[in-house]
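Render this sequence as a predicted structure.
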Amino acid sequence: MEGGKKKKKEEKKKLYFFFSSRRRHTRYISVTGVQTCALPICNMVKSGWEKIAQHVGLPLHVYGHPSLAHFSFEHEDNVLLTSLFTQMMLGKGYLAGDQFKASFAHQVDHVAEYLDAVSDTFMSLTDAVAWGEVSTRLKGPPAQKGFYRLTS
């Protein structure tokens, strides 16, 4: 006792931290859940794009995160070709652009049907390039990237 006062015992509070890894079952640092299960589907699409483009002689660059694939036509009219691709795929019943985001809903048979449509479309794009008809085959203006149409 010091000066007749009882010294209070210092209370120590404990603080616990819980860490959870979202990387379970995958080798990719930022891929989780749906993305992990959808990787085989996305890889099918990416390799399908590459094989079809090579088969029809259409220069194509495939890139992107394993769960979000992109492609671009290696051609000076990339924007026009992408617009024509979307237009032609819409005619086949697909709302498709230059990217693919895999999900639980996608099944192998869906990808096979999609890639059949891509094959026909890539062949038509190859013909359009060869005949110089890319812009004349478009039924409307080409797609704009970003917020162009909102700011112009």
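Summary. The CA atoms of residues 79 and 147 lie 15 Å apart. Residues 15-29 have pLDDT under 50 and may be disordered.
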